[in-house]
Amino acid sequence: MSRHLSVDVAIIGGGLVGSSTALALRGMGFSVALLDKGFCGAQASGVNYGGVRRQGRPVEQLPLSQRAHAVWPRLKALIGIDGEFVRSGHLKLARDEADMASLETYAETTAEHELDLELIGHNGLRERFGWIGDGVVGASFCPGDGHANPRLVSTGFAAAARRAGVEVLENTAVEDVTRDGDSFALEAAGNLSLRARFVINSAGAWAGPFAESFGEPVPLSRIYPSMVVTEPMEPVMSVNIGMTGRGIYARQVERGNVVVGGERALPLGDVDFSRPRGEGALSIMNRAAALFPGLRHAQAIRFWSGTEGAMPDENPVIGPSQTTPGLFHAFGFTGAGFQIAPGVGEVLAELIRDGETQTPIAAFSIGRFGNPASARTDQGSNAGQNQEPPHIGEPRP
Ligand SMILES: Cc1cc2nc3c(=O)[nH]c(=O)nc-3n(C[C@H](O)[C@H](O)[C@H](O)COP(=O)(O)OP(=O)(O)OC[C@H]3O[C@@H](n4cnc5c(N)ncnc54)[C@H](O)[C@@H]3O)c2cc1C
Q1: Is residue 179 part of a domain?
Q2: Which of 272, 290, 308 is the last residue of a domain?
Q3: Ligand 1 centroid from CA 105, angstroms
Q4: Are 68 and 340 in contact (CB under 8 A)?
């Protein structure tokens, strides 16, 4: 049986980006359909490390990141749960003088963005964070950053959107999108057809073919960060830990488990899926134990990975299509979209309501990849394949 819906805005992809956008739009009075090929929050948004971190982002992301920073402490009021968000602070460690110099440069370059970064030398680190072992010469501390539980937050936004009146359609893959007159026609699984005045392409690692079908090819690839979690432990660390270069990142949750990342998994034959490497998990835990003596005898109880869309310049694509009025893109967060997503949702909602936003997003324009081809208004399909992943930076949540 076929079904037809007509809405103001159709959102392709119910990750944290799509769900937070849906909630913000609904709050402005728009009718919204949020479509996901699986379950909302089941991909990168629900399986990530949980770092809610501004420190270390490219400077052009900081205004948007600051906007998201204001949303995180309001989660309880906004979506009904706090998502285990803790403003623990984020401590970025330097292994040598070169690392320390790069932390100093970052603090100078970003001074106007009010991250309140504090550079800490070796002795200060010993005094304040005595649980960190040898091999670290200093650090940069961002007191307002923290961490949260991605499983709760991402599904929490989708549930709040549903309660607010968004039509949340799970297991409903969008198969085709075309511009038709002054609106869009979408075809989705289950014989669903939709009409919408606006479309948001927030399909994460799967967003490339949608952009391409509107004449906007992008160099989107896939990366597969991998995570390890330990058994619950006595308090080992009090802040969210990051590191430059080939390091690790780690946080301890209230129940005592320590979540650690810093390796990449390998894609399977079907590149939608990946498998963490056993030796990768071992390497993560060895590095963690070397840095934090309290983890030397920790038992790893689980490891996993997720599929993330990545751009070569490590900046996402956010903003209006350059070829097709009414189409907006938001994807390619390159391992760092969890913290920023609630800000992205607000910005996209403003773009649709007002045609503009006060938050600077020019650096994220899809136009930075060259001249778009002319819009295809007669057809569109998501049948393309993403490119092979180039090597993109180092693990960095
Ligand atoms: C293991 C891991 C650790 C990470 N750690 C951090 C971190 O600590 N801090 C941080 O800031 N970021 C982190 N990230 C990155 C962050 O998780 C992502 O950048 C962010 O979640 C992206 O959100 P999204 O909504 O764009 O994508 P996703 O969560 O991937 O959502 C996209 C959705 O689109 C849906 N979709 C795809 N195709 C279709 C279709 N045809 N029709 C309908 N729906 C479709 C998918 O099913 C999916 O649910 C990490 C990522 C991973 C994988």
Answers
A1: yes
A2: 308
A3: 30
A4: yes
